[in-house]
Structures are given as C-alpha cells and as structure tokens.
Amino acid sequence: MSRYSPPALACRLFQTVLPVPYRGALLGDLIEEYALRAESTSPSAATRWFWGQACRSIPFIVGSSLRTCDWLISASTATGVYVVMGMLKFATDFMITKLVAPGQTTYVVLAPIVFLAITSIGGHAAARIRYGTAVFLALFVMITVAVQIVVKACTIPVPWWYEFGFLTLGPLSVLLTPVAFGVLKPNSNES
User: Residue 2 pLDDT more than 60?
Assistant: First the structure.
C-alpha cells in the first residue's frame, strides 16, 4: 500500500458523478495512478494532476450520464427538491420581514446566510434521495441566480461581488454539502 493518498474532496466529487457500476474501478485506477505519480515526481505534482483529472473528467461524465434515461429521474427529483427549497426560502423571507426587521439592511445581511443554508439543506436532501441529483439541483440554482441577476430582481443596490457570491457559492454549497457531511461516503457500495 502506498503512503500517498489523493485529495479526499476530489475523490468524493468523483464518487458523486461516476456511475455506480464503474465507480470502484475508475476511482481505483485514478488513485493508483496518483500513488505512482506521487512516488515518481512529488505529492504536490500528483495532487495537481488528480485535481486536473477531476476538472476535465467531471463535465464529460455528467454529459455521458445525460445520454442515458437515468438523468430524467434525477432531474425530476431535483425539480421536486428545488420547489421545496423555494417554499422554504419564501417562508424564511416572510418570517424575516415580519418578525425580525423589515429593513433593507437586514435583508442584505441575512439573504446570503439564508440562501446558503437553504441550498446546503437542498443539496444534502437531494443527495440522500437519489445519487447524482445534486448536480441537477446545482444547475437549477445557478440558472435561477443568473436569471435574477440579469433581470435585476434585487432592487437594493449591492456591489458586483455580492451577486457573484450568490452565483458561485450557491451551486457549490449544493454540491459540496453532501460531500462534506458524509452523505457520499468513500468506498460506499450503492447499487
């Protein structure tokens, strides 16, 4: 056994998108190649290689899963979770404006916290319901935020980085929360 192990987060991201029948073999090959590269070059170079493989492979893997009919079930599940997230966001916004404070400043401060909490909960729920659903949910969140930015749904003047934070951190929280909180376990044997 090699003393070098690849980045855990990258491994879990691979586990999120790799099809179940091939997950063990593909991830095993990547880990083996990582260990060989870490011994022959350096662990940091091997880590960069591993992350490069993740960044280049994940879009292709997601695209190939779209060619199967399995994506329809995942997209439908993500749509259901998305609707529940919308209702939760609406209820939370209503409670903030009625119970906490109706001011714009309060909303600007609490909006990112509420948004990230709801997207994290949605990502966690989507991953628990069906493997791979979080990818579709992240896409839905990203499209929704982008449309709201374009149509200027937020009437409160905010800096560009505020909106950019929603656009990037929302989908990331959907994808990374199941990984961070162990919904997707390493070496899990789902079928």
Answer: no
